[in-house]
């Protein structure tokens, strides 16, 4: 009995955590030890008590969530098996059947493909019930496929660097030998025949920012691109009327692409208003682009005098654009007022939670707070019915992550990118100034995110929430965007150590790749019905294969100089 007592003392952990889990647990039996699917483990509860027990669960990421029933085990000696998720840490609680008394409670991150036994027994100690756990089947190593894939990608990257280097080295060596033995004229002829144009290494420096094309795809870079593109057109003498016509056309095209194509695929059948979703990613990008472009058209063309006679010269790239800043401050004030002051029926004012079983189940129909209420009021049922919180929080209300309030902060996020574009334009010959300003902006935004969220996941003034596009989320993402763009600008555009391959190819055809993947991503050869559902190998291979195909397609389009522009 001594080993059992030691296990009991170690494994009976009595504390309660709160959080979210990745989806509902599958309560099907695994007593026969079938092949488990991805991210699953099997728990078998052995009840040796004279009364039945109920097993409840919650998860580390479900904020203040109510415990949910997992399985019931009859009075012993009986057992029951259940499949559980291995994505996040689970907190399990055992209580007598039909009673609200806790017998045992523990938290654990279960490992994939493992089989566990949980033993529930009587004890002579003051704690009259003991629970301990054993491992019947060892878990699989879920990181091994990732390690193999990382090594293969590293090998491919090394070959992509070494092969051109060795080829240039061979050409250079051959040229030197030919010059030494046969003279300059014959050397040039021979090198032209042997190595082609590789000898001419003095090529003009590209005018495009490679870091921008490589980083393209985010809202932040949309703002940077607006500043660079519109400044170039304004310097070329393009009139304001022409700019407005261009930005309006592009906005309409982006919204129509998102509305007509991303909503629909051949497997959905005929288009129906009953399930048509009005908001969307491209719709949000199109509207954000429209507002940012109008700001740049009417307020953006200002030359910054690089003088040092005024106290505000170090921040003149901000001060000279005061009309834009006033507009952005008013816009963010509108977001704050609507989010925290708008009354929402049957919900607390300023609620930012997921509803459902979260917050102790007090606000089940308040998903998204004011953001969800405004979307339902404006758009009715034509919004997203499967938000990420649905499985996690058992929500019943639809919520659109590309809704109205989130689009306001999307514009603010794009404005941060516009500030990066202004820095690149007016300090383009002063690389130290560009990098230092990027760093200052990253520090300011990062500190703002830390204060707003109190450096916590759920307890801050405004938690970091991507679905809501909260203020802390955009300041956090703005911080990392400035840092990443600064690093890429230094490595690619200043030092020239990296050309951005292969990310630069889909970056220069981002709309084509995004729309193509949305329409064809679920069809062969980009995906197929997997046969080995109990392993990460095929899933990982499918994802890498599809990504490689789109990169290859983007590369071929790049070689053909085809770039889809709207």
Can you describe what's shown?
- With 566 residues, the protein is an alpha+beta fold.
- The protein folds into four domains: 2-137, Immunoglobulin-like (Sandwich); 144-199; 210-265 and 275-301 and 314-500, no CATH class; 501-566, no CATH class.
- It contains 17 helices and eight strands.
- A four-stranded mixed sheet has the order 4-1-7-8. Strands 3-2-5-6 form a four-stranded antiparallel sheet, with no helix packed on it.
- β7 and β8 form a beta hairpin.
- α5 runs parallel beside α7 and α7 (281-299) packs across α12.
- It starts with a helix and ends in a 7-residue tail after the last helix.
- Label the structural class: alpha+beta
The coarse silhouette is globular
Indicate how many domains the architecture comprises: 4
Distance between the termini: 75 Å
Major sheet summary line: 4 strands, mixed
**Mind telling me the C-alpha Rg?**
30 Å
Helical amount: 40-55%
Strand content: 5-15%
Ranges with pLDDT <50 over ≥5 residues? 1-27, 184-205
* Biggest sheet strand line-up: 4-1-7-8
Mean pLDDT: 84
Give the beta-strand count. 8
**Helical stretch tally:** 17
What is the string of SSEs from the N terminus onward?
A: HEEEEEEEEHHHHHHHHHHHHHHHH
How do you describe this structure in short?
With about 575 residues, this protein is α+β, with helices and mostly antiparallel strands.
Write the layout of secondary structure elements.
Elements: H1 2-11, E1 40-47, E2 53-59, E3 68-73, E4 78-85, E5 90-96, E6 104-108, E7 115-122, E8 129-137, H2 144-182, H3 184-195, H4 210-215, H5 219-235, H6 240-262, H7 281-299, H8 316-319, H9 322-341, H10 370-379, H11 389-393, H12 404-426, H13 431-453, H14 471-494, H15 504-507, H16 510-520, H17 536-559
Parallel strand pairs: 1-7
Antiparallel strand pairs: 1-4, 2-3, 2-5, 5-6, 7-8
